[in-house]
Amino acid sequence: MDQNQLKKQVAEAAVAYVQPGKVLGVGTGSTVDFFIDALAQSGIEVPACVSSSERSTRKLLALGFKVVDLNEIESIGVYVDGADEIDASFAMIKGGGGALTREKIVASVSERFVCIADGSKKVDCLGTFPLPVEVIPMAVQSVARFLKELGGEPVERDFTTDNGNRILDVHGLRIDDPVAMESRINQMPGVVTVGLFAQRGADVLLLGTQDGVVTSQK
Ligand code: 5RP
Questions:
Q1: Which of 26, 120, 126, 201 has the fewest C-beta atoms under 10 angstroms from its C-beta?
Q2: 110 and 12 in one domain?
Q3: 188 alpha carbon to ligand 1 midpoint, in Å?
Q4: Could you tell me which residues come within 8 angstroms of residue 62 by beta carbon, excluding any fewer than 6 positions away?
Q5: Ligand 1 centroid to 44 CA: how many Å?
């Protein structure tokens, strides 16, 4: 199976975690696109979705789902999203698609985070995938200098986020303590969100492998 087939496999498996009749949190990315397709085909009744990006919102609406603003609801049962890297403690690097801020907000109010990923995303130590950091435009250079002091090599992405901000992709960071690194980068003035999801990591991991979907729970 190629990578897309592995993504499709976990996306289809994630449908079993959707709670019928409850608001669903929906992440962003190619794996999530497969999940939205599978959800539409399943016929499960989802009263509304909270979306983490304009990309997912467009796809959800096109397939007939109702998308609501997070301010309109009090809680989300399940949040389904992908990852760029995930370690044994279910800490993740996310933001390869640039949706990290809204993803982190939706994850923070969700009771259960179901991560769907192909096997290549599972790592022993986070940091091979460049760490995305969403930054207020006026702070790109000051934040970049700070990230260099941490030992990273920040590269500005040619991309503007759904929130009108910029992304610095930080290469060369070895992230031995993801919780501490998340706090440290978050505290830098001008940083909107760091794409480390360690303080609120995943609860369930569905990993697509050549031998089928491997499920692990925290
Ligand atoms: C988007 C994300 C995605 O979940 C992550 O980039 C994985 O994407 P894909 O499913 O396309 O491999 O964090 O901001």
A1: 120
A2: yes
A3: 24
A4: none
A5: 24
Q: What is the pLDDT of residues 162-211, one digit of tens each?
A: 999 999 999 999 899 999 999 999 999 999 999 999 999 999 999 999 99
- Domain assignment present for residue 61? The answer is yes
Catalytic residue among 85, 103, 134, 182: 103
Assigned domain for 140 exists: yes
Question: Is there a catalytic annotation at residue 103?
Answer: yes
Ligand 1 atom at minimum distance from 100 CA: 14
Q: Which domain holds residue 106?
A: 3-121+199-217
If asked whether residues 97 and 147 sit together in one domain, one would say no
- Is 126 part of any domain? no
Pocket of ligand 1 (CB under 6 A): 27-31, 81-84, 94-100, 103
Question: Is residue 186 assigned to a domain?
Answer: yes
Q: 3-class SS at 58?
A: helix
How far, in Å, CA of 38 to CA of 79, rounded?
A: 15
Global model pTM greater than 0.85:
yes
Beta-sheet strand order (sheet of 191-194): 153-160, 166-171, 131-135, 191-194
Measured in residues, the chain has a length of 218
